[in-house]
Amino acid sequence: MSNDDGIIVLTTREKDWWLSLQEVVPAIERIWDGIGRSGQKTVSTLCVPLPPEVEQRLHARASRFERIVLTTVTPGTVKAALLLRSKMEVPAPMTLYIFGDGTDGFEAFGAFADVLTERDTFVVTCEAEAITVRSCFPKAQIELIPFPLVDHFKVNSGKQRTKTETTRLAYVGRISEQKNLHTLLFALWMLRASYAGAPAVTLDVYGGEDNLGSPNMGLNYPDYGTYLRGLAESLGLADVVTWHGLKPRDWLFYDVHQEPHVLVSPTVHSDENFGSSVLASLVNGRQVVTTAWGGHHAFQEWFPQQLTLVPVRRSTMGPVVDPGTLVKAILAGTDKALSVVEEAALDRGRAAFSEAAVTARTVEMLSRPDRAPEPLKKSPVQRQIDENRARFGGARQIYADYEDPTAQIFFEAYGMEKPLTFDERSRYVLPPWVSCSGHLLHIVDPHRGNQSFHVDEGISELLDVAMCPSMKTCRLPESLVRKLVAQGYAFPLPPED
Known about the structure:
With 497 residues, the protein is of the alpha/beta class. It contains 15 helices and 22 strands. It has helices at 21-37, 52-61, 75-87, 127-136, 181-194, 224-234, 249-257, 276-282, 299-302, 323-336, 343-352, 355-366, 380-391, 405-414, 478-487, and strands at 7-11, 43-47, 67-70, 94-97, 121-124, 141-144, 166-172, 200-206, 241-245, 262-265, 287-291, 307-310, 312-315, 318-320, 416-419, 428-430, 434-437, 440-445, 449-454, 462-467, 473-477, 491-492. The strands form five sheets. Strands 2-1-3-4-5-6 form a six-stranded parallel beta sheet, sandwiched between helices. Strands 9-8-7-10-11-12 form a six-stranded parallel beta sheet, sandwiched between helices. Helix 1 (21-37) crosses helix 12 (355-366). The N and C termini lie far apart (72 Å). 44% of the residues are buried. The model has no long low-confidence stretch (mean pLDDT 93).
């Protein structure tokens, strides 16, 4: 720390278990270090937890601080920030980098949320996240600045892909229920079962289980990775899907992102605020098929030739991806995979996520007019979340389930759009996590939980629906089929030729 500290950057390695933050946090540090080296500002970086002697030096120089930056909000950075603001009464505004904190009701902030002011700035990476922050703090000052990752990506120039009989799909990310890989497997089954003449595809899955489930809902499916492997077997996809497990980032660049593939991600994860794997494939000139969810929307501006977005539908139980729509997007992505993206177009997209571009936007942020240090008031939504957290025992759960009305606000912010509706002209299929036994219909959904329905055949006209993967017919009351459609548990099959 120098004698004339202007900006103090509080950083940490507490979240290195979150693999993408192993790239993102150092990238943010480099931005601030570069601003300091340029002489535009005096910048000092401290890694928490802080030794006692450093705390003493902070106290001695507290009045000289111009700004306090938190690269991520963790117990360590919160402790240091509270020390500065509450105990040392440092008036300097704070700049806080947000990583899905809005969608979980700012759980990581704890008491820190009560001392925020309108002078403080939240840095987000996508408009969806900006909306979630404003839903919790309506007068929050927000800056939208992407992560500057491209400079340290391994990037290969676009090359002509030779036509092959099989298209390689690749998924890179956490193996998590919210990442929705079970729906991707269902879609691949539908591709084989209903699209005669469709190109052959394989799927390589790279990633490890996070065992987090849906903590905002208090849901967790035991051993999701084992479930997915069994699901692939039961759907007859053993020859299609290869499970590679967790791989080092450099390995992924050389063996996945730079090689011919179509990256696919069916995610509806609550904090999908950016998508570094999506960016890694895009800057290498590859096609990407992903949900129109969270931070993925923003890539459309910079990589319009390469990105195929899959709409996320509204159900009565939260966001749902229609497997039939996902199939059509995969076919579109594989069809475009042979095209070569011009290097000039790639360079334009790469530049938007470079350190130079992000540094310029960060310096611009520093020049904004200051606001009055008024307390940052919580919205009724945030107060409701605080009450819910206390009601559920003070843990991460903040919603009763996926039907919770408050949760829908955040789903809508991230991209949940048109509702699923029943079409009497369609043939419907039930996903493999739905079964029928006698007069009971059971749903064992790894993502949204379990439920059962009694099948009363006398209440309405009976409809024939197909079961996956057997394609056997199950006769269900139309009223129940309509309910299953609305919940996202019955989907249209493609029209028969």
